[in-house]
Fold this sequence. Notes:
The structure is a single chain. With about 425 residues, the protein is mainly alpha-helical. It folds into five domains: about 5-60; about 80-160, no CATH class; about 190-345, hpI Integrase, Chain A; about 350-380, no CATH class; about 385-429, no CATH class. It contains 16 helices and ten strands. It has helices at about 40-55, 70-80, 85-100, 110-120, 145-160, 190-195, 200-210, 215-220, 250-260, 280-295, 305-315, 320-330, 335, 350-355, 395-405, 410-420; strands at about 5, 5-10, 10, 20-25, 30-35, 225-230, 235, 245-250, 360-365, 370-375. It has a three-stranded antiparallel beta sheet, covered by helices on one side. Strands 6-7-8 form a three-stranded antiparallel beta sheet. A hairpin with a 2-residue loop joins strand 4 and strand 5.
Amino acid sequence: MARKGGTDRGITQRKGRKGWWVRIYVHGRERWFRCDTKSQAKALYGRLKADIREGTFFPEKFSPRKDITLRAWILRCLEGSTNRDIESERRYGRRWSLLLGKRMLADVSREDLRQIQAKMRAKLKPRPTNVPKEFQPKRRWSDATINRHFSFLRHVLMLAVKDSKLTQNPVTGLKFFPEVKRTRFLAGDELEQLRGVMHQNDWKLVAFAIETGLRRGEQFRLRWDQVDLENGILTLPLPKGGKTRHVPLSEEAKTILRSFDSFLRSAWVFPGLKDVTQPMDSRAFLRRSYEPGLRKAGIAGACWHSLRHTAASRRVMAGVDLVSVKEILGHRDIQTTLRYAHLAPGHLRDAVNRGSLSGTVTKTVTSQKGKREEKMQPIDYMVRPEGLEPPTLGSEVRCSIQLSYGRTQPFQTLRRRSCQGQGNGTASS
């Protein structure tokens, strides 16, 4: 490589910028390319000069068309977002704007994201005052929350790749943390305890969530024009799955809706306490009524989404098939509904009892009259030891061949006992 004044031509370090930079001139225009090390800069400079000589130089292969900061790009993406959970996206956007908002899109590296991922996992909640020293503070963010932050960043940077502002997404290939999926539902006695400590009007919202299985956002943003009490149907135009969903109403759910008079003053089924033109703030309801009710009732490990699990669990334990539960809850994939399969009565019971060592096996038989259970005997040769099975034609032939070679007396006695099971007399030795 040509050197000028003892330095490599076209390679330099820019003031206030990290890494090594390659500078070339194409058709009188100056272009800069960033590298992590000097060796990479030398190799890139040689390759770029070769492409220029051969006429195969395309600048868009090596750098984005226009530099833009991560904060500006996140704001641009949020302006055109149609996601139903836009509040969560804005919260994730504010977090990334504080962490890497001043960085250019091309300067966001995978190593920086790994360090941020480790720091978020190690960060703890501040220790409250007047607590013993042996108090162990909890983590500020769970693994699932950290994964949601990085999922949002991956989506935002993928839009930048599609818009040719990035050559590759640095989040791609980054390992996410494994998440613990809980299926916490409330038992019957827990529901009775919760009902006893909550106000009657507040309990109606909890009961309605169990009767319908709606998500929190779907329930608290429910409008009266989506309710059809005559046919018993709720129509959700844009739920989480992105398709219009129709939720059947139980008789108890209809009774709860008829007890509300909010249709006289608001378009929302659950209007706000101060402003009836806006829906009720679900977070405020949780802090004001639901979470204190859980603490008074002594119920631990439950949240509002546990009511959705309760709605599914109660129906599965009542004998409703999983496909119907999938349609009621609006799951996109049947695999999501299968988490409740172990609660179904008789689930895998017939399968595990077949071939059992017990004397009888219960089998479910389906007929035109319905389902009924019958008793059946297990297959004998599956549980008897070898040599004691009832004789067959093959065993008689094998026995005669073995006797012709002079088997000992114990074998002949065993053969005689087995042949007596036919009821045709004893076999001669």
